[in-house]
Amino acid sequence: MAQLTGDWSTVASLMADVATVVGIGVGGTWAYYKFLKGQTFHPTCHLDLVATLVDVSGHPALRVEVTIRNGGLSPMRFSEASERELSIVAIDAPIWEEAQARGGNVMWSEGISHIQHLHEGEPIKLQVQESLGWSVVVPLPEGQCCYLVRLKVLGVTPRFIRKDRIVEWERDQVIVPEEA
Predict the structure, then answer these.
(1) CA 52, 68, 166, 38 torsion: positive or negative?
(2) Which of 81, 78, 60 is nearest to 68 (CA)?
(3) For the ranges 52-56, 115-119, 153-157, the one whose mean pLDDT is highest
(4) Angle, alpha carbons 149-152-155 (nearest 5°)
(5) Helix, strand or coil for residue 1?
(6) pTM for this structure?
(7) 10 phi, psi to nearest 5 deg
(8) DSSP three-state, residue 39
(9) Which of 26, 125, 147, 163 has the most crowded CB, counting CB atoms within 10 A?
(10) Short-list 150, 168, 171, CA closest to 83
(11) What is the pLDDT of residues 88-135, one digit of tens each?
């Protein structure tokens, strides 16, 4: 009877070792798909950009409202003013009409460009689901008819072992007055 008890304890020990190996394999596979393939900690930044034409003392201007929201599962850092850039390109009616005749491909590089940096003078860290917003009024050049408003945001995502990664997001809006 003593030998039978010894055999069962050996079998139970072997089965426990097999279950441990299978458990580690299943857990490793789950972690791989959850965190690496599923990009669980991949930075996700949601940009909202709303630009409207306004009249300021008889001169054209754009009122631009910007919201940056961290939609990911890890914090994001914005360290310099140049990492939150709002650019506005204005084109005149002949460029717009030529683009419409060619099928709608506008040569924005031929326009007048204005760059506005959005910052508060210090580094910003957005926690998960936290948002930050700005509202600015930007004067526009006279005699232009259409505008491309582009928001460019560079964020820094922390990494544990390797160097921090810089990630870029952009959002565009084209403003065309009804007269154009």
Answers:
(1) negative
(2) 78
(3) 52-56
(4) 160
(5) coil
(6) 0.70
(7) -65, -45
(8) coil
(9) 147
(10) 168
(11) 999 888 888 888 888 878 888 888 888 887 776 677 788 888 988 889
